[in-house]
């Protein structure tokens, strides 16, 4: 059942970490499992793997910690963990390790730059990337999507950090409407529907976000003649 309405926004602004309209009340510890599939244009699944999101809160330090554990189709695993200030979602640091080793990364986030140390296939990088203040870590992006104050006319840019783009990676986020999904776990879910994208690297896709919890329920991202489909299970 789809109750999808479309709204066109007239302006777009940069939405920064620390904005008072962020839904901080939705930040809660928990574990969510996602299935990630690559499909062709007919919907045929070409590859499939899982990602486990674990959200924890360190109240003493004022940190939100998001850990993502990927079990890749070829048997390899990837584990990354991002720490952000719970009061603003401004990133503090990120660590990523892979098993067996194909890439490790350590990121130290600062107000207007990121110190990045990476080892990809034996090629080591130690560099500073300049940023605009108020940015988010792209590894936290799905979580941030769920905490934005959606309403008619909401259309913003989120400046995020992505190592592969040498720093600045602006994402456009636009409220499209609302929808009702029948979830894979038997629950009827009332959702915001949001268009998200960052240009050629990740063209405009659609994201469904549960209104009551801020959890991303589904994302569909076009990738050339294929689709990248992320579904909560």
Mean pLDDT score:
91
Question: What is the CATH third-level topology name?
Answer: outer membrane lipoprotein receptor (LolB), chain A
Largest sheet: 16 strands, mixed
Helix content: under 10%
Number of helices: 1
Shape: globular
Low-confidence stretches: 1-11
User: Number of folding domains?
Assistant: 1
Secondary structure elements and pairings:
Layout: E1 13-14, E2 30-40, E3 45-58, E4 63-71, E5 77-85, E6 91-99, E7 103-109, E8 113-120, E9 123-130, E10 136-137, H1 141-145, E11 155-162, E12 167-182, E13 188-197, E14 205-210, E15 216-223, E16 226-232
What do you see in this structure?
The protein is mostly beta strands. The protein has a single domain (13-232), classed as Clam (outer membrane lipoprotein receptor (LolB), chain A). Helix content is 2%, strand content 58%. It has one helix and 16 strands. It has a 16-stranded mixed β-sheet that branches. A hairpin with a 2-residue loop joins strand 8 (113-120) and strand 9. It is globular. It starts with 12 loop residues before the first strand and ends with a strand.
Question: Top keywords for this entry?
Answer:
DUF3108 domain-containing protein, outer membrane lipoprotein receptor (LolB), chain A, disordered N terminus, mainly beta, 233 residues
Structure summarized in a few sentences:
This protein has one helix and 16 strands. The protein has one helix at 141-145; strands spanning 13-14, 30-40, 45-58, 63-71, 77-85, 91-99, 103-109, 113-120, 123-130, 136-137, 155-162, 167-182, 188-197, 205-210, 216-223, 226-232.
